[in-house]
Design brief:
Blueprint (H helix, E strand, L loop, with lengths): L1 H14 L5 H6 L8 E10 L8 H17 L5 E4 L10 H13 L3 E4 L12 H10 L2 H9 L6 E2 L10 H13 L3 E2 L4 E2 L2 H13 L3 H29 L6 E6 L2 H16 L2 E3 L2 H4 L19 H9 L13 H11 L3
Parallel strand pairs: 1-2, 1-7, 1-8, 2-3, 4-5, 6-7
Helix pairs in contact: 3-4, 3-10, 8-9, 8-13, 9-10, 9-12
């Protein structure tokens, strides 16, 4: 599905949309070092294959300890449906609260993670409202407001009309959309990683973790280059990760990769001050993709972009096998 997504998107790029004049008007100036990135986590309290409550809490505590050690002001996006488990709801809410206790911020990722591409707008908006109930209460207990929304699958609407209508709904409810510029398919690696752990396959566990960090390096190279091509300068990036066991075990490596490349970790509010996030975005359709791709599409870029690198073949194969029954 990932390869198909990219092939279709590249076909759209070949069609092109005219005029870069608006881009030139909003072109951000180049920033001096350090570079900046905001780290975000999706699918709280857990992304990927299910694990028991004790393991979920241990995963969360470990991930949060590493986030704190690297002074990362992350925003984490919640699917509240995952809190409603018979006999486990209080503990799951307590696990969610750990993110706020660690000084981080929670956002809304809808209640049940539907796709705006295939869900009627009214039903999707209802899912958004249902997904803010507990999150809003927890934030208010900390003197905070619920202010960020992240689209499931990064799908922003099947048509520009639907997208505009939904964005109006979000604005009226006080939300700011959380865009993404760095994406590394960590959810695929995590599925393979968790299955390997369940089989006590030490070799595959190690291979998957190492491949994950190597793929992240590749993706950072790709998106840094793409930002120069699509925007014309470096930007303050937003990294999409997921709350899962892979990142609990390897986020230290992720954070070190960015630190070694000269990045400072910043808040989402700081990242969104970059003028790049006010560039034209004329894309609507089925493909969930980086905002860098959207800006390139809106600029009418044709053959200036290379296809986004895919995860290693062994990850794609094992991920597809693990999810074939869904």
């Amino acid at each position: 599905m990932k390869l198909l997504k990219r092939a279709a998107f590249m076909a759209l790029l070949l069609v092109g949309i005219p005029s870069a004049s608006l881009l030139a008007q909003e072109k951000p100036s180049a920033n001096a070092a350090p570079k900046e990135v905001c780290v975000t986590f999706d699918d709280l309290p857990l992304n990927g294959p299910d694990i028991d409550l004790k393991r979920l809490r241990a995963m969360t505590v470990k991930l949060l300890s590493i986030i704190k050690a690297h002074n990362v002001p992350a925003v984490a996006f919640v699917n509240e449906r995952k809190l409603y488990r018979m006999g486990e709801m209080d503990e799951r809410v307590a696990i969610l609260k750990l993110w706020l206790d660690a000084g981080l911020e929670l956002g809304n990722h809808t209640y049940s993670h539907p796709s705006l591409q295939t869900t009627p707008l009214a039903a999707f908006e209802e899912d958004v409202m249902r997904g803010e109930t507990i999150t809003r209460i927890l934030l208010e207990q900390k003197g905070m407001k619920l202010r960020y929304f992240r689209h499931p699958f990064l799908r922003t609407g099947p048509t520009l009309e639907a997208r505009t209508a939904f964005e109006k709904f979000l604005t009226e409810r006080g939300y700011t959309v959380a865009p993404v510029t760095f994406d590394d398919a960590d959810y695929m690696f995590n599925t393979v990683y968790v299955k390997a752990r369940e089989r006590n396959d030490a070799a595959l566990i190690k291979r998957t973790g190492e491949a994950y960090l190597e793929h992240l390096r590749t993706m950072v190279d790709f998106f840094e280059k793409l930002s120069l091509e699509a925007v014309g300068s470096p930007i303050r990036h937003v990294l999409l990760l997921h709350a899962n066991e892979l990142n609990a075990d390897y986020f230290d490596g992720v954070a070190r990769i960015f630190s070694e490349r000269g990045y400072a970790f910043v808040t989402l509010a700081r990242a969104l001050e970059d003028k790049a996030y006010r560039l034209p975005d004329n894309y609507a359709g089925p493909w969930g993709m980086s905002w860098l791709h959207r800006w390139a599409y809106s600029r009418g870029m044709k053959q200036t972009l290379k296809a986004e690198p895919d995860p290693p073949e062994f990850i794609q194969k094992l991920y597809n096998e693990a999810t074939a029954s869904r």
